[in-house]
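Researcher: I'd like a structural prediction for the single chain below. Treat it as a standalone chain; there are no partners to consider.
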Amino acid sequence: MERKNATRVTEFILIGFPNPWEIEILLFLTFFIILMATMIGNIIIITLIIIDYRLHSPMYFFLCNLSVIEILATLAVVPKMMQNFLLERKTISFYGCLGQSYFYFLFGTSEYVLLAMISYDRYVAICYPLQYSTIMSGKVCINLVVGSWMSGFFSILVPTVMKLGLPYCGPNVINHFFCDSAPLLHLACADISLVEFIDFLVSLPILLGSLFLTLISYLYIISTILRIPSATGRQKAFSTCASHFTVVTIGYGTSVFIYVRPSQASSMYLNKIASLITTAVTPLLNPIIFTFRNQKVQAVFRNTVNKYISLRKCTG
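Model: Treating it as a single chain, here is the predicted structure.
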């Protein structure tokens, strides 16, 4: 039942992680370093994949798009969180809050779908190596990436528009460091059951579908690898999937911890820590897990650096 004669909220207060001023400054510096490292790492990956022909393959095309998503997802949350470390009143405007929530879940959903596309790419590469270039053609790869972005865009759009139309008349305090969907929705002074149902209805098929595709792909991948006669061949095949499997485990593991467990007030702090992993730590680790440990990327990186040094010497 909507509460009548109430003033509409124009801003929200983000509690974040309440700490003494000295700790807030330390946290600001820590996340500044994390933000810079995330930006630099992912930009290096994008640049290397674009400029070097040795990385012009479907897998690296997907990883390039994954790095773009990581950059955008980080920028949607971390800079505002850092700003609030330095402010006494940790506020965000009404439309800024809805926008942050929309883009955070848009990029998150797109990333899950893209990870499923990468698992399909690995499935084709290992199970059908001779047909790989035909199945994973340039057109197919572009369609898969566009599909991952569109799935995120449309699945989050309808619930966000519905949240925008809800009355928010106070309180306006969000016990989080960003405008997460559930804490924001429960501040509405109206019946939210329909919005919650629509949110569940449009999100669950995409998330479960991407997880199902990933699991099925890996079942076939593992089955195929175990039939490889040589231990060296099995090890090489496993190494091509280990990075992706690690990222998938971290991503889905934290999401299950946050959104599938029963809601309990006592677990909110743990939920914030888990959200922090997905918004700040994972985008930093993904370039390291996926690419900087990859021998081909390492070779391309060294070659690019050597070319740059030689060019500087020639022009200097």
